[in-house]
Amino acid sequence: MGLKEEFEECAEKVKTLPKAPSNDDMLILYGHYKQATVGPVNTSRPGMLDLRGKAKWDAWKAIEGKSKEEAMGDYITKVKQLMEAAGMPA
């Protein structure tokens, strides 16, 4: 299985976790997913009243220098860690 296929599979598997990941883990996943699928941040930072949007944008911006492949690999690793922590097969 190629990297892209494994990434897409993990993007689906993470939705099956019995309990939603913590906010910190969700931001890590979001940033890596966006970097892997879109590339570097291509939007302006949300306004100060959009706390959720700012947190997501910051998570994406924080890994801006990573290649799409690196972001995919890190996303896969994080999903596997979350699945193992939940007692699910990775």
UniProtKB/TrEMBL annotation:
Residues 3-88 form the ACB domain. InterPro entries: Acyl-CoA-binding_prot_CS (IPR022408), Acyl-CoA-binding_protein (IPR000582), Acyl-CoA-binding_sf (IPR035984), FERM/acyl-CoA-bd_prot_sf (IPR014352). Pfam families: ACBP. It comes from the Eukaryota. Gene3D superfamilies: 1.20.80.10. Keywords: Lipid-binding. Belongs to the ACBP family. This is ACB domain-containing protein. It comes from Hibiscus sabdariffa (roselle). The lineage of its organism: Eukaryota, Viridiplantae, Streptophyta, Embryophyta, Tracheophyta.
